């Protein structure tokens, strides 16, 4: 495959503010988001002195970095509230989806075309096989901003957000890797030397651990999707386990289902995985939902 891209420097993106944006893009991605008045007011306040689209986005990123924190253990927003408003003004702790969604909503509030993107960061290179291994915990969310004459450009506001005190990891793994490339390279070299004497044993235990975690997550996700299909709310292709569990909890008016999604996320995203008690609780909830 061959691809071409325009080098998106800060100077180029600032100049792009003088180029008109297609009406179709404005209509779909720049319409003010359905949020609260104080979120709209905050977006206008943050960007008031920024002269270009690029500077406005950087101003929002800087504000997020100064006022919110990152943690995979952040609680869900209470029901019947605006999630972005709750994150920015009450909780102030969240993971990449809340951070990126907040940037998208505030950008749209000031007329900037923005959308949320989800995918995976590169993961890590397996010293034994030489291949990059991407796991569920490498999933990430970021924002994309449209610049006239350039197109969609990614921004990762989570990289600017500091860790909460209880957060084992956070921000963009790619950004961390870029900032600590030399140290990570040295650590990787030491690890490669250390495992030369027992690669087969190490690979065996790694496969067994991954298989045990994957088996429970796959089985539980299948059970959750089966409950949803019976209830008339099938999982949509782009929904994460947490998003689907939250939607299903609202559909069935049973908040216990949201906890199942949290456990699936913890099992996939945290290094330790979900605790046995959390897994047992999730299994009990799903068992109680059988007809």
Largest sheet: 3 strands, antiparallel
Average of pLDDT = 81
**Fraction of residues in H or I helices:** 40-55%
Overall number of domains: 2
Q: What is the terminal separation in angstroms?
A: 49 Å
CATH topology annotation of the largest domain: C8orf32 fold
Which parts are unreliable, with pLDDT below 50 for 5 consecutive residues or more? 169-181
Strand fraction equals 5-15%
CATH class of the largest domain: Alpha Beta
Structural class: mainly alpha
Judging from the principal axes of the Cα atoms, what is the shape?
A: globular
Query: What is the count of helical runs?
Result: 12
Q: Please provide the count of β strands.
A: 7
Backbone CA Rg = 21 Å
Please list the strands of the largest sheet in the order they lie side by side: 3-6-7
| Corresponding CATH architecture of the largest domain | Roll
The SSE string, one letter per element, is HHHHEHEHEEEEEHHHHHH
3D structure, described in words:
This protein is mainly alpha-helical and 291 residues long. The chain has 2 domains: 10-179, C8orf32 fold (Roll); 198-288, no CATH class. Helix content is 53%, strand content 10%. The chain is built from 12 helices and 7 strands. The strands form 3 sheets. The protein has a 3-stranded antiparallel beta sheet with strand order 3-6-7. A two-stranded parallel sheet has the order 1-2. Strand 4 (124-125) and strand 5 form a beta hairpin. The longest helix is centred in the last third of the chain and has 32 residues, at 199-230. The termini are far apart.
